[in-house]
Amino acid sequence: MPIVDPDVDLTTAEPGWFSNTWVFQDPGPLPPEPVALAKDDWWRSIEMPERFAGLAPYRPSEALEMFKQLE
């Protein structure tokens, strides 16, 4: 489970002092072992929110380049 709510636009989120509505208060138990995957392998192993599913075929560096082209 993610720690940050993927449905919140973080560019408009206001930081709170003791809690933030965009941070899940209980993300669930930690995995028994640390993640020991390369970034590209990790990227393909997570379940992305539906609106980001189109990024799944790309490596993180490729997705970053696509975002830079939007600027």
Explain the overall architecture.
The chain has helices spanning 39-45, 60-70. 25% of the residues lie in helices and 0% in strands. It is flat and about 35 Å long. With 71 residues, the protein is mainly alpha-helical. The protein is built from two helices and no strands.
| Computed CA radius of gyration, to the nearest angstrom | 15 Å
Report on the biggest sheet: none
> Can you give the helix content as a percent range?
25-40%
Q: Please give the count of helices.
A: 2
- The stretches of 5 or more residues where confidence is low (pLDDT under 50) are none
**SS-based class:** mainly alpha
* Percentage of residues in DSSP E strands: under 5%
Distance between the termini: 30 Å
What attributes does this structure have?
single chain; 71 residues; mainly alpha; flat
Q: Quick recap of the structure?
A:
The chain is mostly helical. It has helices at residues 39-45, 60-70. The mean pLDDT is 79.
How is this fold's topology laid out?
Layout: H1 39-45, H2 60-70
